[in-house]
From TrEMBL:
Domain of life: Bacteria
Record-annotated membrane-spanning stretches: 29-48, 68-87, 107-125, 194-216, 223-245, 277-301, 322-345, 357-379, 391-409, 421-445, 457-474, 480-501
InterPro entries named among the record's database cross-references: MptA/B-like (IPR049829)
The keyword Ribonucleoprotein is annotated on this UniProt entry: no
Pfam families according to UniProt: MptA_B_family
Segments of skewed composition (Low complexity): 1-12
MF-aspect GO terms: glycosyltransferase activity
Organism: Pseudonocardia broussonetiae
KW Transmembrane (keyword) present: yes
This protein's UniProt keywords: Glycosyltransferase, Membrane, Transferase, Transmembrane, Transmembrane helix
Name of this protein: Polyprenol phosphomannose-dependent alpha 1,6 mannosyltransferase MptB
Family per record: Belongs to the MptA/B family.
Lineage, highest ranks first: Bacteria, Bacillati, Actinomycetota, Actinomycetes, Pseudonocardiales
Length: 533
């Protein structure tokens, strides 16, 4: 018996031919090289603490001595990872018309290999981890992190404060009490050792990613979507690798708990005291005690349970009362345990201090303010207009979420798709949007096949947003020349690399595409080839 794709014809007396090379292997290795370049570049371009602990260390301190080169190397790696991910996604979508796609095992191995260098390197794209450390230390010292900024709590010269961007040094924590309680545990273990604290928070972020990896296949099977495709779109997404693994944003914990709770809750029967229903609610409330928007998933889970019981008004009332009670109990436990009550709800607007160009409601507010200045001669009322447009955006998001819940209750939409679409509405219409916020919707959307056009749009958007955040996690004031120089150099490296591997990326001549394992010949019915990307 011969392996698929192997030409067994031999010339008399000649050596046996080599097996056909897997065309997806080059794309997977291309992404791995990109990840390694990012890890190496992070030594000089990453969001390093102040002072830089690498100074004075041979070899490791070299990238930090030439930040422009380090940023260029990092950008080259970013581009290579994104291109490789998109190319493999094209293979999955084309069902072998481009090149045989890697199987599920290869996809899982590839995602892990791409993540390992980023997990071992300094953080990239964000300095939020230093805020996490300072805010958790504030709570550990018996102070209120929701009313005291790190600078006021410790002083601007404290090692925990020096690495935090200036805009966030005087603001309270915008995160829920569960996350700060976990951070207080990290503070107890690491003290003022910033490097140890950073890697402890990365371990916490990886725990959230592990929950996502565990739950995505289960949600995908519920929706009838290929597990490998769901994992590639969700868990191996560059936004996950860049901002959850490398940047270690607490979205990993929020989304992980939210989706695990949703999956557990979907296993419940029709009794309100079912352990799955109760446990699922607790997990989602814990996710909301990391970041509040996760609470939306609780509404969709309750509506789905009410639909299964018949969808009557009293069923909705029972679900509402049950999950409201769980939320009150969990929040009360945190309030009493930390001694802070519900102070964290008053600090949720802290991120809105910045004006994010990704937020539609903020963009309309800024536009309206400028129109009033230029055309109306009314003076600068931008802040007032922003208040109106941001409020309108939140109201519209709430109305869309309510409409989606009604569709789930009536059976016109499955609960997973409804929850993903509701989270998308919250992200798009919220006052502040960062690229990693998109993961609130992208990850659950990756598990459903009900919205193929939206999934394709998310694929493209993920690739674009993965490259818009500078790897340093800071602005380039007074050194604006550095970023364009680095980007141009990184593009040149990518172009040269693509010239080397261009033949392998499109597959080698002579390979029998239809013979590769898992390939569906073009003549097979479309429904046998899996869900479209």
């Amino acid at each position: 018996m011969t392996a698929p794709g192997v030409d067994t014809t031999t010339a008399p007396g000649g050596p046996p031919p080599a097996p056909a090379r897997d065309p997806s292997r080059t794309a997977r290795l291309f992404g791995l090289v990109g990840s390694l370049l990012m890890a190496g570049g992070a030594l000089g371009s990453g969001a390093l603490p102040v002072p830089n602990p690498l100074f004075g260390i041979r070899v490791l301190s070299l990238p930090s001595r030439n930040a422009t080169v380090a940023i260029a190397v990092t950008y080259a790696g970013i581009g290579m990872v994104v291109l490789a991910w998109l190319w493999i996604g094209k293979m999955l979508r084309a069902n072998g018309a481009v090149a045989p796609a890697p199987d599920r095992t290869q996809l899982a191995r590839t995602a892990v290999l791409w993540a390992i260098p980023l997990a071992l390197a300094p953080p990239l794209f964000s300095r939020d981890v230093y805020s996490y450390l300072a805010q958790s230390a504030t709570l550990a010292r018996g102070l209120d992190p929701y009313t005291l900024g790190p600078a006021e709590a410790f002083g601007v010269d404290d090692p925990l404060v020096r690495s935090i961007p200036t805009i966030w040094r005087d603001t309270g924590a915008p995160y829920g009490p569960f996350f700060l309680v976990l951070g207080r545990g990290i503070t107890a273990l690491t003290g003022n050792d910033i490097v140890a604290g950073v890697f402890a928070h990365r371990a916490l972020a990886l725990l959230g990613v592990a929950m996502i990896v565990w739950v995505l296949p289960k949600l995908a099977r519920r929706c009838g979507l290929d597990v490998g495709l769901a994992m590639w779109l969700g868990a191996a997404n560059p936004l996950v690798l860049f901002h959850l693994v490398s940047g270690m944003h607490n979205e990993s914990l929020m989304v992980g708990l939210m989706l695990v709770g949703f999956e557990v809750g979907l296993r419940a029967g029709d009794r309100w005291w079912d352990p799955h229903l109760l446990a699922g609610g607790v997990l989602i409330v814990l996710a909301s005690a990391v970041k509040l928007p996760a609470l939306l998933a609780l509404g969709f889970l309750g509506i789905e349970w009410a639909r299964r019981r018949g969808g009557r008004v009293r069923d909705v009332a029972v679900a509402t009362a049950l999950y409201t009670g769980i939320a009150v109990l969990v929040y009360a436990a945190f309030g009493i345990g930390t001694g802070l009550g519900l102070a964290w709800l008053d600090a949720l607007d802290a991120p809105s201090l910045i004006r994010s160009w990704l937020s539609i409601s903020t963009d309309f507010g800024l536009l309206g303010g400028q129109v009033g200045i230029i055309l109306g001669g009314l003076g600068d009322h931008t802040d007032a207009v922003l208040g109106l447009t941001r409020t309108a955006g939140l109201v519209l998001a709430a109305l869309l979420a309510g409409w989606l819940m009604l569709a789930v209750l009536r059976g016109r939409l499955d609960a997973i798709t409804g929850m993903a679409a509701g989270m998308a509405a919250v992200v798009v219409l919220s006052p502040i949007v960062h690229p990693w916020y998109l993961l609130w919707a992208v990850i659950p959307l990756a598990a459903t096949k009900a919205m193929p056009k939206a999934r394709r749009a998310m694929l493209i958007i993920s690739g674009i947003l993965a490259i818009v955040v500078p790897p340093t996690g800071a602005d380039f004031n007074f050194r604006a020349y550095q970023l364009p120089m680095s980007i141009v150099a990184g593009l040149l490296v990518i172009a040269l690399t693509l010239l080397v591997v261009r033949r392998s990326l499109v597959g080698r001549t002579g390979v029998d595409v239809d013979a590769w394992p898992g390939h569906v010949p073009a003549g097979r019915p479309k429904e046998d080839r899996g869900a479209p990307l």
